[in-house]
Amino acid sequence: EVQIMESGGGSVQAGDALRLSCATSGLSFDANVVAWFRQAPGKEREAVSCLGSGDGDTVYSDSVKGRFIISSDSRKNTVYLQMNNLKSEDTARYYCAAGLTFGGTFRCSSPNLKYGMDHWGKGTLVTVSS
After folding, report:
1. Is the C-alpha dihedral spanning 18, 46, 5, 65 positive or negative?
2. How far, in whole angstroms, is CA 34 from its chain's centroid?
3. Distance between CA atoms of 17 and 64, rounded to whole angstroms?
């Protein structure tokens, strides 16, 4: 059984940094893409960053490019999201999710990424005050 648990959220000031963790079990990083999504109140869930399987390919949304960094530690089965220079518009619940690549058919660059995810965590809340 695949389990995903996010942690590291909190309330910070604009300009501060946070590191989110996505601890997984039962998941092969070689066979899945792992991505961070976020959902603000009244808005749709959007992809923030994605880590490709095996090749380490990374993708970022335009809104976080240059500020957020996704990484992984396969020994700990954990994916991280380092969030720097946080802005009030980054306030949201952040979710970690994983989706099977089906041999490369499903990738971080696939359209409508969230619909290809098979497993989701419950999220961690990030609040940024200006």
Report:
1. negative
2. 7
3. 13
Q: How far apart are CA 76 and CA 99, in angstroms?
A: 19
Query: Contact 108/33 with Cβ under 8 angstroms?
Result: yes
Extract the tokens encoding 65. 């490019």
Token pair listed for 47: 């992809």
Q: In angstroms, rounded to a whole number, what is the distance separating the alpha carbons of residues 21 and 10?
A: 12
Residue 75 C-alpha from the chain's centroid: 18
Per-residue pLDDT reduced to its tens digit, 46-58: 999 999 986 678 9
Which one is predicted more confidently, 98 or 54? 98
Cα separation, 56 vs 77, in Å, equals 14
Structure tokens at 121: 């965590």
| Residues 22, 119 contacting (CB under 8 angstroms) | no
For residue 12, the Cα-to-chain-centroid distance in whole angstroms is 19
| CA distance linking residue 24 with residue 128, whole number of Å | 26
Q: What pLDDT digit, counting tens, does each position of 9-41 carry?
A: 999 999 999 999 999 999 988 889 999 999 999
